[in-house]
Every structure is written in C-alpha cells, then in structure tokens.
Amino acid sequence: MKYIYSRDYTITYSYVDRTGRLGILEFLNINQDMITSFCGYIGSDNPTIKAKNNAAWLYTRIKVKVNELPFWNTKTKAVAFVTSKSPIRMTVETNLFNENDELLVVAKTEMCVIDLELRKIRKIDSVEFPSDLEVMDSNFAEGFSKMNDEFSSQDLIYSQKVFASDTDFTHHTNNVRYVKFIMNTFEESFYDEKKVKGFEIQYAKETRVNDSLDVLRKETSDTEYSFLIKTGDETAVKAKLWY
Questions:
Q1: Residues with Cβ within 8 Å of residue 141, at least 6 apart in sequence
Q2: Which pTM was predicted?
Q3: Are 71 and 10 a contacting pair, CB within 8 Å?
C-alpha cells in the first residue's frame, strides 16, 4: 500500500527568517513535523514504538534541495511518503508545493530505529510498522554526499552547551537544534545577500544535556560551506550548505 500524508501550511511569521521568506531552519521544522505526523499516520510514531517496543526513530541524514523559498503568507501543501526502505533504514521524502502544484522545496530524510535500552540499531520489522508499505518514486534523485571532518582549530566559530530545552522525546539533542547551531554561525550579511540552494546534515553521535559542542565552519568553495559539530574529540554532526 502507498501511504501518503499531506498537510496544508500557510507560511506564517514564525516560519520566515529576516528576509521574509521561509528559512531553511524553519523548513526543517516543517520537515520534522511532517515526518513525525507521517509516522503517526502509519502507526509507527515514537510514542507508539517506545511504549510497545522500547525503541525510537532516529534521523541519520537529511538532504534538502531548494527551488524557491516561499514568502510570508504563501499558501503551501506539504506531502510526505517513503522512497526507500531496507531492513534497518528508510527514507522519508517531504515535498512542499505552492498553490499551482509547483515544487518549492524537497527534503529526503534517512531514518533508523534504535533500541532505547541498548542504544543499538534494530530492524524495522521488530517494531510497530505496516508490513504492506510500498516505496514511491522520489522527486529528489540526488544521493547523499560524502563528508569529511578535516577541520582545524581556526574553523571554530563558537561553543554551545546543550540545555534541557534543546532535547526531545528521546532525551537527546533534537535534530533541528543542530541546524540552528549551524545557522547561528552566519552574520546578518549572509542572510541579506545569499540565497540558500541546498542543505545537508549527517548525524554521527547523540549528544545530551550538559554536553559541550564546538561548532566549526569553513568555506569550501565560492558557493558552499561545510560544518562540523564536535563533542570533545568526537564528531556529532557533519553538514554542508549550498548557496
């Protein structure tokens, strides 16, 4: 069966950045809402699989392609569906359309199930999940990037403590909080002069309350920045942004 979840979104003030358009951070909040709602729609959301299976869904990678970031008060429609599935991973795609059914922004989010006691990956069929779910064609064929963590101390922008308000239902730092930490590395001129064309983030290690994070950034080309978030000597997050 093809499971599709959709929701109408008006780009209200809380979804725009200083340019008056949907921000990349705010879109990833929409993406997170769409995925959690999709998982609820198929009976496999985190409250359900935590209660029944002592497990939770974790994001491993997200990649975003921007065709156009809509302005404040634009009416849009978001659609989420599965585009790939293996025994231990699935990819959920979120498409954001305008009223003319033009694709504005698309995100592909790779996810896995983790055992909340052992903190190890589990097979998807070991938790509540529809056995008849069919994968659908993707509107975003581009694969995930290979990223390295070769940064120097000169690339450190700032350090960030993880507060309780940064954590979510699984008691680790929320996926979108890392995006906020990354976007906080930019000055006003970036937002006023650049247009984001794409963003990718890969999660390597969970972090928790009171962890100290080092947020590093370097410009890797005329149209690309790379990022690294570390906790001590360990990599927590790698990311790229294209503009």
A1: none
A2: 0.95
A3: no
